[in-house]
Write a structure and sequence with these properties.
Elements: H1 2-5, E1 8-13, E2 16-19, H2 25-47, H3 54-73, H4 80-87, H5 90-103, H6 105-108, E3 124-125, H7 132-140, H8 156-168, E4 182-183
Antiparallel strand pairs: 1-2, 3-4
């Protein structure tokens, strides 16, 4: 009992005495290590030029994901038959929509109705006369209208898919930016004997 009294802190409240029960040494080591780790963490993620951001990590994962999908899809042509075929395939249109929303919605709105970019849901076009022209505009941009070129930011398959998705928005009018340009002829009719696309990939299983 005398030994226990030596550990008392001298504090007593309502007859309850406080013992000196120090934190274990291993706890102090972990605490000191966490302080050093925090310093390294902050220095690397906030000040190091070799650190990567969350958007960069996401972009890297997306490139790997697209690579797996496109390995099954193959290299797409950007001609009218390919784009019309893709327009009939809900899987690839969902994929084209995801590219559109991620890269084009800030100017054209998520539904294509236009903000400071053209409304893509009406039947009037400024720089498009045939369906293949959409791919060219996506790739090369339209400097006079502030439309950037995406050929160095998106792969060719991505541009074919997003161009096909944009083509699918035609004649699905939504309230937004006023129509501009002139009406053009209809897109080519889909080939009933053709498959829905050059690759049958179930996006839901990925």
């Amino acid at each position: 009992m005398a030994g226990r009294k030596e550990k008392l802190m001298g504090h007593e409240y309502d007859g309850i005495s406080e013992y000196d029960n120090p934190t274990p040494g291993w706890w102090h080591m972990f605490f000191i290590a966490s302080v050093f780790y925090s310093a390294v963490y902050i220095a690397f993620w906030h000040f190091s030029p070799v650190a990567w951001s969350t958007p960069q990590a996401l972009a890297s994962d997306e490139r790997a994901y697209y690579g797996r999908l496109f390995a099954d899809l193959g290299e797409l042509d950007h001609d009218a038959p390919t784009m019309v075929r893709l327009m009939q395939d809900q899987k690839w249109m969902a994929f084209g929509q995801s590219i559109f929303v991620a890269n084009c919605a800030q100017c054209h709105a998520a539904d294509g109705s236009g903000i400071n970019g053209a409304n893509l849901t009406d039947d009037r076009w400024i720089n498009v006369r045939k369906i293949e022209d959409i791919f060219g505009i996506v790739s090369e941009g339209v400097a006079a209208k502030g439309m950037p070129a995406w050929k160095n930011r998106l792969g060719e398959n991505e541009r074919v898919l997003v161009a096909s998705y944009v083509a699918s928005l035609r004649n699905t009018p939504r309230q937004g930016r006023a129509a501009e340009g002139e009406p053009i002829g209809p897109w080519p009719a889909p080939d009933a004997g053709a498959s829905a696309g050059p690759g049958e990939v179930d996006l839901a299983s990925r």
